[in-house]
From TrEMBL, chain A:
It comes from Halanaerobium saccharolyticum. The lineage of its organism: Bacteria, Bacillati, Bacillota, Clostridia, Halanaerobiales. GO terms for molecular function: 2 iron, 2 sulfur cluster binding; metal ion binding; oxidoreductase activity. Keywords: 2Fe-2S, Iron, Iron-sulfur, Metal-binding, Oxidoreductase. Pathway: Alkaloid degradation; nicotine degradation. This is Carbon-monoxide dehydrogenase small subunit. Residues 4-80 form the 2Fe-2S ferredoxin-type domain.
Length: 157, 763, 291
């Protein structure tokens, strides 16, 4: 099958890519762009390990064909750290021990980032709603919530 | 005791790479010239393989090889019993058994080739219930064996007939627990590289127990252990689950890597993971308990039947822990316990966090509440009258006197944390409306580490580099639980250096010594002692050198914050300078640490002895709201008090508590792998539900510290105790709220509303 | 192996042209159902030659709520329904149903049109819209037709959409005067949970009496239907005459009348009855009835 041309901006960088008709955004990110921070946990939109931000919205990248998001702006976990250091969310996750095995972490960070970008002072309920599609089997979630709250405070300050 | 690093909430040393996405997990690895492998698995739970036709598959584009059992040098492996097939040869014994495999240039090409493999089966009758499998004349699933029994563990103490005769109240109850999927977020992945760095094969991937995997691969390939190198990557969770299933994957990939001369990557989809990975044993439990009207237990007779599925896997040891702990932490003079494991054609079962304890605790702690009700005693009171205290003797005849028996303490502290007394009183009164609240508790004792299962020893290597930086190696593996950080803390503590100077290195079987498996909540206890041993050896060497150099007594000098102090607040040298000088004078700046557990004893026939050298104690309390109109269950609050000896990293311990409580919640109220005639119905997370962030109760973790004489800095175990208690606490709370006692897990909508589970097909 | 050609439409005209000209076209919107099928290499792809992505067709987007009429574009995502202030104020039961679907990530992509067109038995978008008496507008190159939503589904996963049609929008009359609503859902956990049972109650009231009640099921029957017997029970009654328990029993009986005794009935009968009972209690409470 012929490949389709798409243009994506990923973590601020423009990419011209050729994608297959069945190629998911997850595949493009991991295999073409070699950004392996985004994970595949279930392939059916039930775990959130593949969460990235597309045009300001958190989405499961396993549920999106790359061709559908031609022209979009994508943020992955690799886009959080900058020359000035770790993002407040990353620092907070480390500070609050919100990381155990680390497999759900990129997805969690993306969902949290999407939240804080639109709602810088979220309530605990709003944090839970933003993260309800991200499963974690290790941490029991509490320290993740603590981390998001801490990041929100630091960011807002 | 004032510690610098130990007993502090030090940040995890491996957090940076995880929050930046830099951490490489198995599926992230890429090697030059890599091939991709896929496995064809049978949908039949029990069938003869008549013929496998692979010629069409071999012709498919991109395919570099199609393999079956005949290509496997030694097709059987296993940690305890070598009955697990790498690929099914004559028979498949469970739905999900691999029968053939393909390696190709891309995953898609491998998957396409799988579809072209033709297998002729002769379906056989299957056995799907261990209670059927044990019957006289049942279909024999492993013809070379006498019957379907995998194992039987007896435990005898006193005379139960006499004990029941002395009882005023005797209760008999049956409980059942379900198949559980580990549900680690990362599906299993391995990459095997042939002929790398003087090794025949190097195995990378999500491997919980690198030495067990090395054993399996070398046994399958029929090569020496030294020919197989296993390097452990970041693992996305394991909880006991990435042992035999990953070893099988590694063995398969190794065969293909050697056949093609190229690296072979094998990554499971979530569906494949569900289909082929082993599960937690479902148990069928019958308990008979006798007590005087004053609430003193006189006898317990217990039978626990575990479903081993198609292979023996860890069944012999899982059921052994059950036989030791089945009575719960209570003094009972007369005990007769029998635990059994039987082969069936269900998915096979193996190690899963708790390892034979969650099942018996659900039963026995539910039973204690039922008994309390019969006797007209409150649940706390019945427990206090019977639970272990200092010097108590267990069902196996072991006197608990080497460590602090802290059941009373954990219970009191948990009760305080959740305001148990007031809530118990409140919710015992009549409640109006459909939504009713209840509160319930459970307590446990847990033997730490392997006990009588195997030799319990671990090793560590510490190298001090010429610039004073320190590398720590351990034979135990970071599974996500924080091992790297804990061991770094211990090394830094002993050597008196900042955490930033310690680097924990990846486990590589070619030089870190075999330390057994990272299981049984033994890493801190056994592995930590090994790290401490290595560090202390080095410290000894340093202090001896310093004593000579500075002509001061070693006793007054101190290694602290990266300096050597003279005992009067003066800095004599930096750690780096001192150790650098030592290296330059030809002193060896590396040390091996080794720790072997204190002796234990077990008489397999009589079921008595000292099975574990130390124990931990825990109490969890659940406050629930039961919607008696819809069957919905909300766990609102949970208190979890655990005696860990010493919390090397309290923040980490809390993380284990939160995580374990949530896993226990899932076990108690929503998780269930549904099988129909051995076939899993629903092989992904939309069917198999684990708790989301919204299912979280408010969890109050309580860390109790009674330093253990054998633990490093007094520390013992936390990983598994946190999971094993939740389901019983919740079941007791539900009974308190609704007046209905549910004896089967999970406590799902149907069981809570109508008292029984419902199944498609009307069973 | 699944094979199809991927097409992308940028306008409604382009979309309709493709549907007219080609055969075996499957529409792709949010993807949260279809991508699961693709992952499973589902057999349905044997009959699919083209996958047509319509997410860029702006004419299918938008929410307009007037005084008398309202319309929701098929490509409206559940996230948009949750956050739209007018929906929250005037049709809160639609926002409630939307917010109970999936997760934030899923709601950001999944569309109301996709939920309806997929027609799973447990699809949550149906009951609020059936309660509104909504119609779907099905457009082809040749024109458009309207179908009452309760007549839209033939069987789970089977609707009466023709191969050259696209579900363009959902249209309905706005509830008039004083009205109250309740959305109820039972799931097996508190998020990412398919409904075990869900339903919507919408009632227009006047002078302490129920003028027009609409109770519609979701995930209780093979496809969502109005509970006409419950509606009949409630219509015309004053608050004092309404017994929520009886309404629940009527609903439970009506459900079993439709489904027959199934393996799940021993649970669903009492649970559905209880949900209807609570929806009616909500109605009475919000209406200010203190009986």
């Amino acid at each position: 099958m012929a490949k389709l041309d798409v243009e994506l901006t990923v973590n601020g960088e423009k990419h011209k890519l050729k994608v297959g008709s069945q190629e998911r955004l997850l595949d493009t990110i991991r295999e073409q762009l070699k950004l392996t921070g985004t994970k595949e946990g279930c392939s059916v939109g039930e775990c959130g390990a593949c969460t990235v931000i597309v045009d300001d919205q958190a989405v499961n990248s396993c549920m999106v064909l790359t061709a559908q998001v031609d022209g979009s702006e994508i943020i992955t976990v690799e886009g959080l750290e900058s020359k000035s250091g770790l993002h407040p969310l990353q620092k907070a996750f480390i500070e609050k021990q919100a990381v155990q095995c680390g497999f759900c972490t990129p997805g969690m960070l993306m969902s949290a980032l999407a939240l804080l970008n639109t709602n810088p002072e979220p309530s605990k309920e709003e944090i839970k709603t933003a993260l309800e599609g991200n499963l974690c089997r290790c941490t029991g979630y509490q320290q993740i919530i603590d981390a998001v709250e801490m990041a929100a405070e630091e960011w807002g300050a | 005791m004032a510690f610098k690093h130990v007993n502090k909430g030090v940040k995890r040393v491996d957090a940076y790479e995880k929050v930046t996405g830099k951490a490489k997990f198995g599926a992230d690895l890429e090697f030059a010239n890599m091939l991709y492998a896929k496995v064809l698995r049978t949908e039949y739970p029990h069938a003869k393989i008549l013929k496998i036709e692979t010629s069409e598959a071999e012709k498919m584009p991109g395919v570099k090889g199609v393999f079956t059992a005949k290509d496997i040098p030694n097709n059987l492996f296993g940690v305890i019993v070598q009955d697990q097939q790498v690929l099914a040869e004559d028979k498949v014994v469970l739905a999900g058994d691999g029968v053939a495999m393909v390696v190709a240039e891309s995953e898609a090409e491998a998957a396409a080739a799988l579809e072209k493999i033709e297998v002729d089966y002769e379906e056989l009758e299957g056995v799907f219930d261990p209670l059927e499998a044990r019957k006289e004349g049942a279909l024999k699933l492993h013809p070379e064996k006498e019957d379907n029994q995998v194992i039987h563990h007896p435990l005898r103490k006193g005379d139960v007939e006499k004990g029941f005769a002395e009882a005023d109240v005797v209760l008999e109850r049956e409980y059942t627990t379900q198949f559980i999927e580990h549900s680690y977020l990362e599906p299993e992945a391995v990459v095997v590289v042939p002929n790398e760095d003087n090794h025949l094969v190097s195995v990378y991937g999500s491997i919980q127990n690198p030495y067990a995997t090395r054993n399996a691969v070398s046994a399958v390939l029929e090569v020496e252990l030294a020919d197989v190198r296993v390097i452990q990557n970041h693992i996305g969770g394991s909880f006991g689950g990435k042992d035999e299933v990953v070893s099988a994957m590694a063995a398969r990939a190794a065969v293909m890597a050697l056949a093609t001369g190229r690296p072979v990557k094998m990554v499971n989809s979530r569906e494949e993971s569900f289909t082929e990975s082993y599960k937690r044993h479902p148990y069928h439990l019958t308990y008979k308990i006798g007590a005087t009207k004053e609430g003193k237990l006189t006898a317990m007779e217990i039978e626990a039947v575990a479903d081993s599925g198609g292979y023996a896997c860890q069944t012999p040891f899982v059921t052994w822990r059950s036989v030791v702990q089945a009575t719960g932490p209570y003094e009972v003079e007369n005990v007769k316990t029998d635990t059994y494991g039987y082969y069936t054609n269900n998915p096979y079962t193996g190690a899963m966090r708790g390892y034979g304890s969650p099942q018996v605790i659900f039963a026995q702690e539910s039973l204690m509440d039922e008994l309390a009700g019969e006797l007209g005693l409150e649940p706390v009171e019945l427990r206090k009258r019977n639970m272990y205290s200092q010097g108590s003797v267990t069902a196996s005849g072991q006197k608990l006197d080497r460590h602090t028996v802290s059941l009373n303490e954990v219970m009191d502290k948990a009760m305080e944390a959740i305001d148990y007394k007031n809530k118990y009183e409140e919710y015992s009164k009549e409640q109006s409306g459909d939504k009713k609240k209840g509160i319930g508790l459970s307590i446990s004792f847990r033997g730490c580490s392997l006990g009588a299962e195997a030799i319990d020893a671990a090793a560590s290597v510490i190298q001090i580099n010429k610039d004073g930086s320190v590398a720590v190696y351990s034979g135990l593996a970071e599974n996500g639980q924080g091992l790297k950080t804990i061991f770094s803390q211990m090394a830094a503590e002993v050597l008196g250096i900042p955490m930033s100077e310690v680097e924990f290195k990846e486990l590589d079987t070619s030089f870190t010594p075999d330390s057994g498996s990272t299981v049984a909540s033994r890493a801190t206890l056994i592995g930590g002692n090994a790290v401490k041993d290595a560090a202390e050896k080095l410290k000894q060497r340093i202090m001896t050198f310093a004593q000579d150099k500075y002509e001061l007594d070693a006793e007054v000098m101190e290694l602290k914050d990266g300096f050597l102090y003279d005992g009067q607040g003066n800095r004599l040298a930096t750690f780096a300078d001192l150790t650098g000088e030592m290296g330059n004078t030809g002193i060896l700046m590396s040390a091996y640490g080794w720790y072997k557990s204190p002796p234990i004893s077990w008489d397999e026939e009589k079921g008595c002895g000292n099975p574990y050298f130390t124990y931990v104690y825990g109490c969890q309390i659940a406050e629930v709201e039961v919607d008696t109109g819809t069957g919905e269950l909300s766990v609102i609050n949970m208190a979890a008090a655990h005696d860990v000896g010493r919390a090397i990293n309290p923040e980490n311990v809390k993380g284990q508590i939160y995580g374990g409580v949530m896993m226990g919640l899932g076990y108690g109220i929503m998780e269930e792998l549904e099988l129909r005639d051995g076939v899993i119905q629903g092989t992904n997370f939309h069917d198999y539900m684990i708790p989301t962030i919204k299912d979280m109760p408010d969890i109050k973790p309580v860390i109790v510290e009674n330093p253990d004489p054998d633990g490093p800095f007094g520390a013992k175990s936390i990983g598994e105790p946190t999971l094993e208690l939740g389901s019983a606490a919740i079941a007791n709370a539900v009974a308190h709220a609704s007046g209905k006692r549910i004896r089967s897990l999970p406590l799902n909508l149907e069981r809570v509303l109508i008292g029984r589970a419902l199944h498609k097909g009307g069973k | 192996m699944v094979e199809y050609q991927l097409l992308r439409a940028h306008s409604l005209d382009e979309l309709l042209e493709i549907l007219d000209q080609r055969e075996n076209v499957q529409l792709l919107a949010g993807g949260t159902d279809l991508m699961v099928d693709l992952h499973h290499q589902d057999q349905k792809f044997d009959k699919i030659d083209y996958l047509l992505d319509i997410t860029a067709v702006d004419e299918l987007k938008g929410i307009q709520l007037g005084d008398k009429k309202g319309e929701i574009g098929a490509l409206t995502t559940h996230a948009e329904l949750v956050s739209n202030p007018e929906i929250k104020e005037k049709l809160p039961f639609i926002a409630a149903a939307a917010s109970s679907i999936g997760s934030t990530q899923i709601r950001n992509r999944a569309t109301i049109g996709g939920n309806l067109a997929n027609a799973a038995a447990c699809a949550d978008s149906f009951s609020p819209l059936i309660a509104l008496g909504a119609e779907v507008v099905l457009r082809s190159k040749g024109g458009a037709r309207r179908v009452l939503l309760e007549d839209f589904v033939e069987w789970p996963y089977q609707t009466i959409i023709k191969t050259d049609e696209v579900l363009e929008k959902i249209v309905f009359a706005m509830p008039q005067g004083e009205y109250y609503s309740s959305y109820q859902k039972i799931g097996r956990r508190k998020a990412l949970s398919i409904s075990r049972i869900s339903l919507t109650l919408l009632a227009e009231v006047e002078n302490g009496k129920v003028k027009k009640a609409q109770v519609a099921s979701g995930a209780a029957t093979p496809f969502p239907v109005p509970f006409r017997k419950v509606n009949d029970y409630l219509n015309g009654k004053s608050y004092a005459e309404i017994d929520p328990v009886e309404a629940g029993n009527i609903a439970a009986d009506e459900m079993v009348g439709i489904t027959g005794e199934r393996w799940s009935t021993p649970y669903k009968r009492p649970a559905l009855g209880k949900l209807v009972e609570r929806a009616v209690e909500d109605l009475l409470e919000e209406a200010g009835y203190n009986g």
